[in-house]
Automatic annotation (TrEMBL):
Organism listed in the record: Arenimonas metalli CF5-1
Keywords from the UniProt entry: Membrane, Transmembrane, Transmembrane helix
Domain of life: Bacteria
Transmembrane domains' residue ranges: 35-54, 60-79, 91-113, 125-142, 149-167, 173-191
Name of the protein this chain belongs to: DUF2157 domain-containing protein
Keyword Repressor: no
Amino acid sequence: MLLPLATPRGVALDRESDMAGILEQDQLRRNGVRALVWGGAAALLLLPLVAMQFTDEVDWNGADFIVMGVMLLAVCTAYEIAARIARNNAYMVAAALAAGACFLTVWVNLAVGIIGNENNPANDLFFFVVALAMVGSLLVLFRPRPMAWVMVATAAAQLGVFAYAWLADLGFVPVFTVVMCGLWLASANLFRRAAGQAWS
């Protein structure tokens, strides 16, 4: 006895059910990552407060916590925007790398200065690099393909700041430059993959 074949409508219902399950799992995963991002930011903000209870090496005042809080809020907000726009994991990772690179640059620069100390005038140029990444992202409305080119331009700006500081005898930071350019270019490559298009 032959088993009855599934009707086209039954197949369509099964596919819709499978798709709904995939979307639900993806939403749960994103919610889990969202909780991790915001929880991690809160923990990072509280870390200096805890450290101050055990050592005199960490001495933050209210202004330090406000600045750090604003920076973390900016990174988390960037993640939220990416989470709502993203259509694939490549976009999410690309956005995370870009936001992390911005945060790392500003944090290190404000804390100790990237070149020498925080009073070195060359350090102000690194804020220009971050501004380029942020303004460029807004101008292209966070679309993946143009975002790839924004990240390439940001890497070029990072290299330009390094070259200027070196030639002007203001400082020499090859390791930081290589790390940051690597982050910007890795983000660019992932945005390109997210767009599903080749360079043109």
